[in-house]
Design goal:
The complex is a heterodimer.
Chain A: H1 2-27, E1 28-29, E2 32-35, E3 39-42, E4 46-50, E5 56-60, E6 79-83, H2 85-88, H3 98-108, E7 115-119, H4 125-139, E8 143-148, H5 150-153, H6 155-158, E9 166-170, E10 177-181, H7 192-199, H8 206-221, H9 248-258, E11 263-267, H10 281-292, E12 296-299, H11 304-309, E13 315-316, E14 322-327, H12 329-345
Parallel strand pairs in A: 6-7, 6-8, 8-11, 11-12
Antiparallel strand pairs in A: 1-4, 2-3, 4-5, 9-10, 13-14
Helix pairs in contact in A: 3-12, 4-9
Chain B: H1 6-21, H2 25-44, H3 48-67, H4 71-106, H5 124-140, H6 149-157, H7 170-173, H8 185-218, H9 225-256, H10 274-280, H11 283-297, H12 304-322, H13 326-349, H14 357-376, H15 380-390, H16 403-428, H17 433-441, E1 444-449, E2 453-458, H18 463-479
Antiparallel strand pairs in B: 1-2
Classes of the chains: A alpha/beta, B mainly alpha.
Chain lengths: 348, 492
């Protein structure tokens, strides 16, 4: 009797695990690998998809480039789009990605230039500077576009994050800054489970499960303490650095130097649905610093009024929240148009 | 320490182990009272003293009521208990509301009172109603007085329902203390399955929808009519799944540790009239309001007009109970009017013209949905903006049709369908072949509990049953949002 019950339970549990893993794999799949030059990048020659935020599916050729094929040298030097999860853009399809749309816009204008989107989730300005040499040596770009928002200059660029390769730190008493590399894994853990997952991703979505375990760990760690009114208040020094203390001018200058001033900053300001046309204060600051350092500056904010007129927001998805999270296909389309206009305007 | 937090699960696990180890009834009660105090203190230890003080006052008052020979003294002790409870509630919950309204009136004369810096004690509305009902029941002679302060303290501080109900009466809870207390295997299984049902409601539905509802209610002037309807519908489902989920978890936890709590929700959105809705929604509050407010006001004993007045007043105060804001009073007033209107219709039609079930349900559901607008809105101006948007005359033009709303709607409809087939239909008819087969294949059986209503309890182990359980747990692991929002009714 007991054995019968045990067998039934084992069959039921095994079937449930398989079914749930299959569903999880359909909802989200992303594999990464260690590139000898760039570190951790999306796995080459693989599709990845995300139906939890947005409804995206993409293909990465190699070297972390999201593109159906790697351009042949005869196609000429490419335009390189560098960014973080906004450029990685798991939430949209390849056809909706601003890299693909930019290439189409340029082709429509008679310029056949390949566009290579290289986005890595978690990157910030410090990572872009640290990777500048590698990126330029590997891709030989004709021009580089870096996608940034205010937070990429602030806390993200100054704190140690798992997914980034470098961060800023103060180099001397005078307050100058430098980029310090962070230890990154040199090879992926080739555990039995991972190998099994690589062979049968539908049966065991390793990355998804691993990611959820990390989220649960964070959830447990961030839980409100026992008897919370007794808990010590957070001291000012341990809090995030106030905005005004970030040396934005030095950060932009270092970025410009790293890319020899051949750079366009694609800036993503927050979208204010009530007042979409008004530029935010942070946008003005970064624009001025970019101009001071001889960089080109394109703000997605320039298209906000048009997007708002159609009753949409450039951020958020119908399976998440309105105007929150990553940018959607409206944002990507607008970015492609703005970038194409700017690149053509500079006579590329 | 909310029920869906890892810390609570650890707390519950330790408590269950300790309860299983401690066999003596008195020691078990002590343990449970201590655990309840610990649970409350984990919220905010500063108000644990208030909770215990309230329980002492009512314990003494009830004993004095029984001991007093003269009815005048009995009445005085009862009045003392009611005044102290309402005083505590008034001071901590409504102080600033009164000051705000007083200031609004007197500011013309240049006279204002500064607002008080008071933190609302968790669960105050629930435990003051619980203690009040106890002394009133003792005064009425409907309940035997509790002679042991330990028993009484345990009744008041009982942690599963301390923060957000169900509002348990002494007549239901106190007799349970006399039987053998402690977790049994069957109770553990049936309690944890009910707890799991609550977790599904809370994490899968309520928490998924909370962000959507928050977006709409934070900026009601942004969205077009279809999107605003989505927002209001999202809140309609969220508040039900949040509160019913909490109630399920509370009843499940209580069941695990050996106690039965009363049913609090019985698929209220299936109601065919507003009267039926209040028999199914927050049942412990509506029965409390009926027994301790509506009937003492006169109920339906003094003519038609007074019946309507009593209904309206009861709901108005019921609205105010939810929170110190005119929005809640307005919400209560709307429901009061609807209840009076339904009574009037029933009386006028004399039962001859009954509206068919489907249009009656649609009318009731739409009314309930619209009433959630003032309940959730931040201000009366927002309420008006949302009503304008719902009618298609709003100022907003942004579109946001959230996919999760439709997914959750499907889940809710399926859940209600199963609930209807298993519980409602089987109350009048023998269970159908399909539902019997489904239950058997899942290894479940239905059990009736005099306090908590109908339960689904696991029977024998089946492949289908284990599959469903493991599948649900894995779906929770994979897809449940981890930014859990606090239960809505905690603020009341």
């Amino acid at each position: 009797m007991l054995l019968k019950a045990f067998v039934r339970a084992a069959i039921g549990a095994a079937a449930a695990i398989l079914a749930a893993n299959f569903i999880a794999d359909r909802a989200h799949r992303f594999d990464d690998e260690i590139n000898p030059v760039l570190g951790s990048v999306p796995a080459a020659a693989k599709f990845a998809w995300d139906h939890l935020e947005g409804d995206g599916r993409g293909y990465w050729t190699s070297n972390g480039v999201r593109r159906a094929t790697y351009p042949a040298p005869s196609e000429g030097a490419p335009i390189l789009l560098v960014g973080n999860s906004y450029t990685e853009a798991m939430q949209v399809t390849d056809e909706q990605h601003y890299g693909h749309l930019l290439e189409q816009e340029l082709r429509r204008a008679g310029k056949s230039i390949p566009v290579l989107p290289f986005g890595r989730s978690g990157y910030s300005v410090a990572d872009y500077i640290a990777q500048a040499q590698n990126i330029q040596a590997l891709f030989h770009p004709k021009w580089v576009v870096i996608q940034v928002d205010r937070r990429d200059f602030e806390d993200r660029a100054w704190t140690k994050m798992d997914s980034s390769v470098a961060r800023f730190t103060r180099s001397d008493q005078a307050g100058d800054i430098k980029v310090v590399p962070q230890s990154t894994p040199t090879r992926t853990r080739n555990s039995l489970l991972r190998r099994f997952s690589q062979r049968f991703p539908e049966l065991f979505p390793y990355h998804f499960i691993y990611g959820r375990i990390l989220e649960f760990t964070l959830w447990v760690r961030n839980e409100r303490p026992w008897f919370h009114v007794l808990a010590k208040p957070v001291s000012a020094s341990s809090m995030t650095r106030p905005d005004s203390s970030y040396p934005l001018d030095r950060e932009v200058a270092l970025l410009a130097e790293a890319y020899h001033h051949r750079l366009t900053l694609l800036y993503l300001p927050r979208f204010d649905p009530r007042n979409p046309a008004a530029p935010a204060a942070d946008e003005t600051t970064i624009r001025e610093l970019a101009q001071k350092n001889g960089l080109r500056f394109v703000s997605l904010g320039a298209s906000f009024a048009q997007i708002a007129r159609s009753g949409e927001s450039p951020f958020g998805f119908d399976n998440t929240e309105f105007n929150a999270g990553h940018w959607n296909r409206y944002g990507h389309a607008a970015a492609a148009q703005l970038l194409a206009a700017d690149l053509l305007n500079m006579g590329l | 320490m909310i029920f869906t937090s890892p810390r609570f699960l650890a707390f519950l696990l330790v408590l269950l182990v300790l309860m299983a180890l401690v066999q003596r009834r008195e020691a078990n009660k002590r343990l449970l009272t201590l655990a309840s105090c610990f649970f409350y203190a984990a919220w905010d230890w500063r108000y644990l003293g208030l909770l215990l003080a309230v329980s002492v006052v009512d314990f003494v008052a009830a004993n004095k009521i029984v001991a007093a020979r003269s009815p005048v003294f009995k009445k005085r002790w009862l009045a003392m208990s009611i005044v102290s409870n309402l005083g505590v509630l008034g001071y901590f919950k409504y102080n600033n509301f009164f000051i705000e309204n007083f200031n609004a009136l007197t500011s013309w004369f240049g006279f204002t009172i500064p607002m008080a810096n008071i933190l609302l004690p968790a669960g105050i509305s629930f435990y003051t109603f619980k203690t009040m009902s106890y002394t009133i029941d003792v005064y009425r002679g409907e309940l035997e007085v509790c002679r042991s302060w330990l028993d009484y303290a345990m009744f008041i501080t009982f942690f599963p329902e301390l923060i957000a109900g169900p509002i348990v009466r002494g007549s239901i809870f106190l007799p349970q203390m006399q039987r053998r207390i402690g977790p049994t295997f069957e109770r553990l299984i049936s309690g944890s399955s009910l707890f799991l049902l609550g977790v599904i409601k809370k994490l899968f539905i309520a928490d998924r929808l909370s962000g959507i509802a928050d977006t709409f209610f934070a900026s009601p002037d942004l969205f077009d009519a279809a999107s605003t309807w989505c927002g209001v519908l999202a809140y309609t489902l969220q508040i039900y799944c949040d509160f019913a989920g909490y109630s399920d978890m509370a009843i499940g936890v209580a069941r695990m540790i050996g106690y039965d709590l009363p049913e609090n929700f019985r698929m209220p959105y299936l109601s065919g009239s507003i009267t039926e809705f209040w028999r199914r929604w927050h049942m412990t509050l509506s029965s409390w309001l009926r027994d301790y407010l509506y009937i003492p006001l006169g109920g339906n004993r003094h003519g038609v007009l007074k019946t309507y007045r009593n209904l309206f007043l009861t709901m108005l105060l019921g609205g105010l109970w939810h929170g110190a804001s005119w929005n809640f009073v307005f919400w209560g007033g709307l429901h009061g009017c609807a209840l009076a209107g339904h009574k009037l219709w029933t009386r006028w039609s004399g039962g001859k013209w009954s509206v068919p079930r489907l249009p009656a349900w649609l009318l009731t559901f739409t009314f309930v949905v619209l009433c959630w607008v003032p309940f959730r809105s931040r201000s009366f101006a927002d309420t008006l903006t949302i009503f304008r948007s719902l009618a298609g005359f709003g100022p907003g033009h942004y579109q946001f049709l959230p996919v999760w709303l439709f997914r959750c709607l499907v889940l809710c409809i399926l859940g209600h369908l199963l609930g209807y087939l298993w519980f409602e239909r089987s109350a009048d008819l023998p269970p159908g072949r399909a539902s019997t087969w489904l239950l058997r294949s899942l290894g479940l059986r239905i059990e009736n509990n005099p306090v908590s209503g109908t339960f689904v309890v696991p029977g024998q182990v089946t492949v289908c049953g284990v599959y469903s359980l493991v599948f649900i747990l894995l779906m929770l692991f994979f897809f449940a949002p981890l930014n859990t929002s606090p239960f809505i009714y905690f603020q009341f």
